Amino acid sequence: MENLLPIIFSTSFAYSVLRVTTPILFASLAAIISDKAGVINIGLEGIMLFAALMGVISSAFTQSVLIGVLCAVATGVLLSLVLAYFSLNLKSDIILTGIALNLFSSGGTVFLLFLAAQDKGISVSLQSKVVPEISIPLINSIPVLGEILSGHNILTYVSLLCVFLIHLFLYKTPLGLRIRAVGETPNAADSVGISVRRIQYMALMISGALAGLGGAYMSMGYVSWFSRDMTAGRGFIALAAEAMGRGTPLGTFLAAIIFGFADALSNVMQSLRVPAEFVQMIPYVTTILGLVIYSIKQNNKIKKYRRNQV
Amino acid sequence: MGNEILLMKNITKVYPNGIVANKDVNFSVNEGEIHALMGENGAGKSTLMKMLFGLETPEEGEIFINGKAIKIDSPTTAIKNGIGMVHQHFMLVPSLTIAENMVLGIEPRKNGFIDFKKAVAITEEISKKYNLIVDPEAKIEDLPVGMKQKVEILKALLRGAEILILDEPTAVLTPQETKELFEELVTLKEKGHTIIFISHKLKEIKEICDRITILRGGRSVGVHHVKDVTQEEISRLMVGRDVVLKIDKTPAKPKEIVLKVKEVNHIDVMGKNILNKISFFVREGEIVGIAGVEGNGQRELIELITGLDQYDEGSIVICDKEIRDLTIKQIRDLGISHISEDRMTYGVAEFASIEENIISDRFDNKDLNNKGLLKIRKIQSLVKQLIDDYKVKCDNGQQPVKMLSGGNIQKVVVAREFSSSPKIIIANQPTRGIDVGAIEFIYEKLIQLRDEGVGVLLISSDLNEVMELSDRLLVMYGGEVVASFEDSTKVTEEELGMYMLGIKKQVFEEKRRVENE
User: Taking every annotated instance into account, which residue ranges of this chain make up the domain ABC transporter (chain B) (predicted)?
Assistant: First the structure.
């Protein structure tokens, strides 16, 4: 245990927190958009997984990073369209459809992986590409901060930028306003001629695109290959982060960092001969703790509100 | 007064379940007038207005705006044709500001972003123009009801509404807010807007309306200039029985008091006074009817008596026991049965079977329950007996209630409530929306139970029902018992109408015997 504290307070640990937060952050932002429109995207996990695989396959065949990332995003959009079609047009339960999507992705990716790489576990036989890391001039020369913030994968910077962009999008653009109106009071939106279904379609597509970026990062940045079920619950952790962050981009960012911290911690502890099974539990235990704390706070707020009413 | 701006001609609307909501209705409104649309609940006012606003389509008939025939298939088309509606339940997004709500769907833009400054400016401008002063940056969730209504009116005006439909706008307002609203409506009228004012409050109509169209039973029964018609005439047109359905029963032989309500007050969350010192009693072996236009406190009164809501002032005593601190289960155990007006919410669990619905109040009874396990055979034979007794048309007891017709669902409710050996039955709109056969059956059962010594409190907006079934009759208006009749056969419809619409009110001495046993 004594070895742990110096590691946690090292710059390389802080660097790794940002590194592991990236996919959670993308997925959390994806969760915000769909949740704001009143369509909960439980399928984030499966969408990320499928996007990760498609990124690897398409970049391997085209030898282009850009096409790989674009394919991952397109996969995300496509899968969320499937979710939208089933839940919005055919009126299936969106939670169940999302779960179905996750199960489909878990099996479907292995099937496709076997077709593309003749392997049911990992894609190392494919010469897939990786999104490059960049060091940022000026920032990289700042002591401590430079080591933490510079030299990350491009997609990590994109995810940070997205926090800001999604905030602008939701609170400053017409579409963002409509998404919030549709999610909160569909009747009110409908009464002024806004098509609720169209807005929900759009929100799910944006959500899918963000999850697609998260998937691309998993297999083309975090590691340089695809392996089965590699998202490992990050899609669900993202939903928890979104709930803890109360659906605001900044709050969700902070919550995602907490989960990233837990994830990074489990990575570090694995090297310290703590039992692996215990360590692997950390991110998920953090999720549960986070949600419990969040709902206790919410309950208190509601109680207080009720008291004030009476 | 201007030309005819709106004409709805020979409108007929039949709902899929066969209920005729409007039959050959003609409705004409002139430019720049405040036109009242009046009628009891279920008279077809809302349906007529829904068709005008594109929420329903008529089976027959045409709509003309400024002499031109148009087809209104959605609210968007209605808005394009200059029709705006202020719904009873506001269509506002609580977490957004007034300005954001105002421009929702028609947001002013600058470089792809919303131009918030312009949104605020637009709101301020229109708010000044019509003298409906609001704070554009305030959030909807922080506003009182009257203010929200202003926002709704402004929203419609911003979208170019020439004809404004207000659906019972004063139902949610305090008297002060009502006064303000009326001043605002007069300003709107002066600026050339046309207002359709749905209401059943005579005083208000007399105060601000120019003309009045009265609907009854889905038909138009007259158009009048408000100044040429007396309140008594309006009341006579609006309240009345279309068909007199006689019910045979012997005179009641009332005994001990089973329900006693004394000086009960109730204030809702908005701070509005809903019930004002209500007092009455019900004895064993009599049916006491409460007549009144809906929304005058009947629903709240029933919620208090059945334990669905808590009362702060006054007392409610059932079989000599004050029910203030009792749970609903304990209240039911005192011998109260409740037929709710909202059958699908409080009457049944729609996806559960007939069996499950019937035993829902007695599954813990020792006859049906063996230390936590249900005695299936006993339950089945009990339910089968009840299905036969109450003539529920179904395949078997396992059938989900949702599959049954409205009348048969009500029979399931009635079977449960009447078979729990009640001492008092609260029957709130017991026959609403069900077929004639089921109605007659329920009447028979109610009278039979009365003769066996059960007390019945009947709340109904069906005048025939409440007049024919009741032994004694009370009238509620504005949260008060305004009239009480010892013998319901001695009351005329005209007289009842006057009390129901608040034109007349009995003095204290006349009601006295109602309040003290």
Answer: 6-242, 259-503
What residues of B are in contact with residue A194 (Cβ under 8 Å)? 104-105
- How many domains, chain A? 1
- The answer to whether residue A167 neighbours chain B at the CB level (below 8 Å) is no
- Write down the mean pLDDT value for chain B: 88
pLDDT, one tens digit per residue, over B302-328 is: 999 999 988 888 999 999 899 988 999
Residue type, position A218, single letter: M
Residue A5 lies in a domain: no
Strand bridging mode B68-70 / B369-370: unpaired
The distance from CA A114 to its chain's CA centroid, rounded to whole angstroms, is 26
Judged by DSSP in three states, B12 sits in strand
Whether A172 and B113 lie within 8 Å, measured CB to CB: yes
Q: Tell whether pTM > 0.80.
A: no
Token pair belonging to B291: 């007549």
A175 — contact with chain B (CB < 8 Å)? no
**Subunit contact A168:B113, Cβ cutoff 8 A:** yes
Residue A12 placed within a domain: no
Is the per-residue pLDDT at B508 higher than 70?
no
Q: Which of A175-189, B36-50, B76-90 has the lowest mean pLDDT?
A: B36-50
Could you tell me if A58 and A297 are in contact, meaning their C-beta atoms sit under 8 angstroms apart?
no
Pick the CATH number of B4-238 from 3.40.50.2300, 3.40.190.10, 3.40.50.300, 3.40.30.10: 3.40.50.300
Residue at A9 is within a domain: no
Sign of CA dihedral A134, A250, A77, A231: positive
More confident residue, A304 or B286: B286
Band the pLDDT of B463: cuts 50, 70, 90: confident
* Residue ranges making up the domain that contains A201: 21-243
Look up tokens 């290959």; give the residue: A225
Crossing angle of helices A65-84 and A94-117, in 10° steps, is 150
Give pLDDT tens digits for A87-139: 999 999 999 999 999 999 999 999 999 999 888 889 888 888 889 888 888 77
Cβ contact A63:A129 at 8 Å: yes
Burial class (CB in 10 A: 0-12, 13-18, 19+), B410: buried
Length of chain A: 310
With CB atoms and an 8 Å threshold, state whether B96 touches A180: yes
In a domain, A139, yes or no: yes
Residue A191 and residue B95: Cβ atoms within 8 Å?
no
- Name the CATH superfamily, with its identifier, for domain B257-515: P-loop containing nucleotide triphosphate hydrolases (3.40.50.300)
Q: What is the pLDDT of residue A310?
A: 46
Stretch B54-81: mean pLDDT:
90
Q: What helix, strand, coil percent values describe chain A, rounded to 5?
A: 75, 0, 20
Paired tokens of B31? 């430019």
Distance CA B498, CA B496 (A): 5
Average confidence (pLDDT) per 10 residues, chain A, 310 residues: 74 89 95 94 95 95 94 96 94 93 95 91 88 83 81 92 96 95 92 91 97 95 91 90 88 91 83 76 79 79 63
User: Is A49:A105 a contact under the CB 8 Å cutoff?
Assistant: yes
How many contacts (CB atoms, under 8 Å) link A and B? Answer: 60
- Tell me if chain B has a CB within 8 Å of the CB of A37: no
Q: Which one of A178, A184, A185 would you mutate to disrupt binding with B, by most B Cβ within 10 Å of its Cβ?
A: A185
A179 interfaces chain B, CB cutoff of 8 Å: no
A177/B109 touch (CB, cutoff 8 Å), yes or no: no
The residues, ordered by sequence, that sit 6+ positions from B4 with a Cβ below 8 Å of its Cβ are: B28, B29, B30, B31, B67
Answer whether A172 touches B (CB < 8 Å): yes
**CA angle A218–A223–A226, rounded 5-degree value:** 65
